[in-house]
Write a structure and sequence with these properties.
4-stranded mixed β-sheet, 147 residues, mainly beta, 1 helix
Length: 147
C-alpha cells in the first residue's frame, strides 16, 4: 500500500489486523498473502519535510503521538515502523510481470535526491491468483483484503 500525504518516507513491517506479522528488514522479500501488507508513505518530495522523534532508518519501537478528536495529543508506542527518512526522496518501482499462475515481483526502492538508496523491499506473489489463510479458497483478481 503506497500513499504520499505526509512529507516523509516511512515503511512498515508486514501487518495484518493492525499487528506486526513479520519484520521486514531492508532488502527482504514479502509474500503479502502469507506475511501481510507492507505500507509505505512516500511524501519526501514535498516543500517542507516532517521530522521524527528518532533517527532516520531507526528500527524498533519508539514513542510517537497522534491527535484525537477535540485536539488532544495522545502518546503511543509504535512497534510497526521499520524504516524512516526525513530528507528528500522518491520511489523507483521495478515490476517483473508473469503469466497467470507464475511468480511475479514488484521491487520498491527508495532513493535520496542524490540517488543513494535508503530502502528496498520486494513483494512476490502468484500472478492472477491470491491465496489467503482467511479466505475459504483461492480467489482470482483483486487481493482478498487485510482481514
Amino acid at each position: 500500500m503506497i500513499n504520499g500525504h505526509n512529507h516523509i518516507y516511512e515503511r512498515t513491517d508486514a501487518l495484518r489486523g493492525g499487528k506486526v506479522t513479520r519484520e521486514v528488514e531492508i532488502g527482504d522479500t514479502v509474500e503479502p498473502d502469507r506475511d501481510g501488507t507492507v505500507y509505505s508513505t512516500c511524501g519526501g518530495g514535498g516543500k517542507s519535510l516532517y521530522s521524527f522523534p528518532v533517527p532516520d532508518t531507526f528500527a524498533g519501537e519508539f514513542q510517537s503521538y497522534h491527535w484525537v478528536k477535540g485536539g488532544e495529543k495522545v502518546t503511543e508506542t509504535v512497534p510497526w515502523s521499520r524504516v524512516r527518512y526525513t530528507g528528500y526522496s522518491f520511489l523507483a518501482i521495478d515490476v517483473e510481470p508473469a503469466w497467470f499462475g507464475r511468480r511475479t515481483t514488484l521491487t520498491v526502492r527508495t532513493l535520496r535526491n542524490d540517488g543513494a538508496e535508503i530502502d528496498r523491499f520486494t513483494l512476490r506473489r502468484t500472478a492472477g491468483l491470491h491465496r489467503s489463510r482467511y479466505a475459504a479458497a483461492s480467489v482470482l483478481g483483486a487481493d482478498p483484503g487485510d482481514v
